[in-house]
Amino acid sequence: MKSAVVVFPGSNCDRDIAVALEQVTGTRPVMVWHRDTTLPDDIALVAVPGGFSYGDYLRSGAIAARSPIMRDVVDRAGKGLPVLGICNGFQVLTEAGLLPGALMRNAGLDFVCRDVALTANETRSMFTNGYSAGETIRIPVAHHDGNYVADVETLDRLEGEGQVAFRYAEPVNGSARDIAGLVNADGNVLGMMPHPERRIEPAHGGTDGRRLFEGLLERVA
Amino acid sequence: MKLTIHVTLKPGVLDPQGKAIEHALSGLGFEGVHGARVGKLIELDVDEGTSDADLDAMCRKLLANTVIENYRIQRA
């Protein structure tokens, strides 16, 4: 399965996600610089990695979401290309309008960096079919702005339409309805604050993150 | 032409930073502080002829996230 990873100035999980994708899919992803204007034609997935794009200036993900490559990411997402945004990538996807809502400063104001328990809430999507619905998994978070905010109508719609992929199973950042990860209405865009690419081999302390990539490979390849 | 853009959180959006400021003011002994909300102030220097529509677009497309923020454009 061919894939691409978008790299912004300040991305710092781009190599981690590339390693995870290469390990699981057997193909090294193409790294795409933010100033590029087009993604490779033959990819089956584009990942928007974690980090601190543009130093989190203005708002986390705000400047990155307006960079040249994101126009093609948004365009291709609209045509069904799977898009995976992790941590800062999730923030970028909300700022780019691919996912609803916004990610604000953590309720406790702390930078939260630890393993957290998540519930796999909706497991029919291409990103979450490797999990059982209601299953508890452990994946690390590392973020300052992960407090998901949306208006009540949007939250009700997300829950009603089965778009809440992951919820926190413990207090983490004050997110509305404990939302840790969301898919878009078409199911081809996932944004999540936890880092599945940091749990892909036993030496990481677990492989709960690997199953996301394995499930994706099964569905997409 | 110099302008000031005020970006503020929409009413109802919780502001943990504002809460922390409110508590810190109380801790300093200032009584009667009933709220604090943190926003942003952006000073822009633009061409004289810049239209209101363009300024509005700048705010909507980048300077404010209208999911959570309101903005106000103040001329000099």
Automatic annotation (TrEMBL), chain A:
Q: Which keywords belong to this entry?
A: ATP-binding, Cytoplasm, Glutamine amidotransferase, Hydrolase, Ligase, Nucleotide-binding, Purine biosynthesis
Q: Name one GO cellular component term.
A: cytoplasm
EC number, UniProt record: 6.3.5.3, 3.5.1.2
Supply one GO molecular-function term.
phosphoribosylformylglycinamidine synthase activity
Q: Name its cellular compartments.
A: Cytoplasm
What GO terms in the biological process aspect are recorded for it? 'de novo' IMP biosynthetic process
InterPro entries, A to Z = Class_I_gatase-like, PRibForGlyAmidine_synth_PurQ
Q: What PROSITE patterns would the database entry show? A: GATASE_TYPE_1
Q: Where is the active site?
A: C87 (nucleophile), H195, E197
The record's section on Pfam families has: GATase_5
Record Gene3D superfamilies: 3.40.50.880
Q: What reaction gets catalysed by this protein?
A: L-glutamine + H2O = L-glutamate + NH4(+); N(2)-formyl-N(1)-(5-phospho-beta-D-ribosyl)glycinamide + L-glutamine + ATP + H2O = 2-formamido-N(1)-(5-O-phospho-beta-D-ribosyl)acetamidine + L-glutamate + ADP + phosphate + H(+)
The protein's predominant localisation is cytoplasm
What pathway is this protein a component of?
Purine metabolism; IMP biosynthesis via de novo pathway; 5-amino-1-(5-phospho-D-ribosyl)imidazole from N(2)-formyl-N(1)-(5-phospho-D-ribosyl)glycinamide: step 1/2
User: PANTHER family recorded for this chain?
Assistant: PHOSPHORIBOSYLFORMYLGLYCINAMIDINE SYNTHASE SUBUNIT PURQ
Q: What does this protein do?
A: Part of the phosphoribosylformylglycinamidine synthase complex involved in the purines biosynthetic pathway. Catalyzes the ATP-dependent conversion of formylglycinamide ribonucleotide (FGAR) and glutamine to yield formylglycinamidine ribonucleotide (FGAM) and glutamate. The FGAM synthase complex is composed of three subunits. PurQ produces an ammonia molecule by converting glutamine to glutamate. PurL transfers the ammonia molecule to FGAR to form FGAM in an ATP-dependent manner.
The record describes its quaternary structure and partners as:
Part of the FGAM synthase complex composed of 1 PurL, 1 PurQ and 2 PurS subunits.
Provide the protein name.
Answer: Phosphoribosylformylglycinamidine synthase subunit PurQ
The organism of origin for this protein:
Sphingomonas palmae
What phylogenetic lineage does the species belong to? Bacteria, Pseudomonadati, Pseudomonadota, Alphaproteobacteria, Sphingomonadales
TrEMBL record, chain B:
Where is this chain's protein located in or outside the cell?
Cytoplasm
Annotated keywords: ATP-binding, Cytoplasm, Ligase, Nucleotide-binding, Purine biosynthesis
Q: Does the keyword Membrane apply?
A: no
Q: Name one Pfam family in it.
A: PurS
Catalysis: reaction(s): N(2)-formyl-N(1)-(5-phospho-beta-D-ribosyl)glycinamide + L-glutamine + ATP + H2O = 2-formamido-N(1)-(5-O-phospho-beta-D-ribosyl)acetamidine + L-glutamate + ADP + phosphate + H(+)
Q: Which Gene3D superfamilies match?
A: Phosphoribosylformylglycinamidine synthase subunit PurS
Q: Which GO terms describe its biological process?
A: 'de novo' IMP biosynthetic process
One GO term of the cellular component aspect? Answer: cytoplasm
Enzyme Commission number:
6.3.5.3
User: Could you state a single Gene Ontology molecular function term?
Assistant: phosphoribosylformylglycinamidine synthase activity
Q: In which pathway does it act?
A: Purine metabolism; IMP biosynthesis via de novo pathway; 5-amino-1-(5-phospho-D-ribosyl)imidazole from N(2)-formyl-N(1)-(5-phospho-D-ribosyl)glycinamide: step 1/2
Biological function: Part of the phosphoribosylformylglycinamidine synthase complex involved in the purines biosynthetic pathway. Catalyzes the ATP-dependent conversion of formylglycinamide ribonucleotide (FGAR) and glutamine to yield formylglycinamidine ribonucleotide (FGAM) and glutamate. The FGAM synthase complex is composed of three subunits. PurQ produces an ammonia molecule by converting glutamine to glutamate. PurL transfers the ammonia molecule to FGAR to form FGAM in an ATP-dependent manner.
Q: Which family does it belong to?
A: Belongs to the PurS family.
Q: How does it assemble?
A: Part of the FGAM synthase complex composed of 1 PurL, 1 PurQ and 2 PurS subunits.
Q: Which NCBIfam families match?
A: phosphoribosylformylglycinamidine synthase subunit PurS (TIGR00302), PRK05974.1 (NF004630)
Annotated protein name in UniProt: Phosphoribosylformylglycinamidine synthase subunit PurS
User: Which source organism does the UniProt entry give?
Assistant: Sphingomonas palmae
